[in-house]
Amino acid sequence: MFPLAIDPIVFSIGSLPVHWYGLILGLGALVGLFLAIYEGKRFGIPQEFFMDMLLIGVPSSIISARIYYVAFSWDQYKNNLMDVFKIWNGGIAIYGALIGAVICAIIFYRYKGYPFWRIIDICAPGLLAGQMIGRWGNFVNQEAYGGVVEESFLRNKLHLPDFIVNQMYIGDAFHHPTFLYESLWSLLGIALLLVLRRQKFVRAGEIFLSYFIWYSIGRFFIEALRTDSLGFNGSSGLATLMNKLWTPMTWFGFKQGYLDPAYGNIRISQLLALLIIIAAIVYIIIRRTTGPTKAHYSDPIVCSKPIAADTVVPESAVNTPKKATQDGQPEQAQPVAEDKKEQ
């Protein structure tokens, strides 16, 4: 293991070490929760709903992310099974976390009586915020970095501060701060989603699908810079296609990171990103052309189960109809109070 410029342990409680990695992941989850609660108020969704979702969703995501990573790195763990549980050393796959989060959300939202696409749209910017912050855990652990670069590239071209440049000196060379690239890409994505969800033409589910598209575009290009990618042996034609699609990065002076032939010739996350982009775009087109959903993001969100008597419903939600279709579109827009314009 490479010596770390930053101590990964913040402090210890007795013999129990507290790692930066865990604290940073926790901070990302809390920021995501705040964004969901803040937007949820516009639709009259109680903050307790999102807090319960976080308590269930975070463990589900971590477990799924670890299973995903270990499954594709089994040779590394098969003789050291206890290392499977040492998540503070890294090895959390974001796509695995998303799989766990979506499965958990489908079950939880149905149990609570909320339409899946409407709530997941609200959560999308928070998911991206959690990933943006969580990448700094990789920075502290000196993992998920890219190929070798000159120190001048980091200081003179990227103008990075000393604490980042120093942390990117791993082994005997400086490396691409791919954690930073992905973090900044996520920040831009959050801004994009916040603007997009205020547009009248956006339908239910399209914010979440846009999140997948945006993140996967960045992940496709950034993943090839890394030197620790999970891979598999695929056809030479597919490998050639992936390399050609990545060609625009070479125009800016980037080179692909080393991929150990023992892992294969295709990066799993890169291929998955490409498939997600295609699938999400196709799904948006199908939903719009076949018309299975009529609800828009700005429409009221209706819970199919009774609201607790002690739940405070904001004034902005008093005109919410009693019934809704599966996508959250009101069957009959019969206001129960005077219409109010969005503040």
From TrEMBL:
PROSITE patterns: LGT. It is a multi-pass membrane protein. One of its GO terms (biological process) is lipoprotein biosynthetic process. A 1,2-diacyl-sn-glycero-3-phospho-(1'-sn-glycerol) binds at residue 135. Pathway: Protein modification; lipoprotein biosynthesis (diacylglyceryl transfer). Its EC number is 2.5.1.145. The chain crosses the membrane at residues 20-38, 50-72, 92-109, 116-134, 178-196, 208-225, 268-286. Residues 317-343 are annotated as: Disordered. GO terms for cellular component: plasma membrane. It holds the Pfam family LGT. It comes from the Bacteria. One of its GO terms (molecular function) is phosphatidylglycerol-prolipoprotein diacylglyceryl transferase activity. Residues 317-332 have a biased composition (Polar residues). Keywords: Cell membrane, Glycosyltransferase, Lipoprotein, Membrane, Transferase, Transmembrane, Transmembrane helix. It is found in: Cell membrane. Belongs to the Lgt family. HAMAP family: Lgt. Catalyzes the transfer of the diacylglyceryl group from phosphatidylglycerol to the sulfhydryl group of the N-terminal cysteine of a prolipoprotein, the first step in the formation of mature lipoproteins. NCBIfam families: lgt. This is Phosphatidylglycerol--prolipoprotein diacylglyceryl transferase. It comes from Paenibacillus monticola. The lineage of its organism: Bacteria, Bacillati, Bacillota, Bacilli, Bacillales.
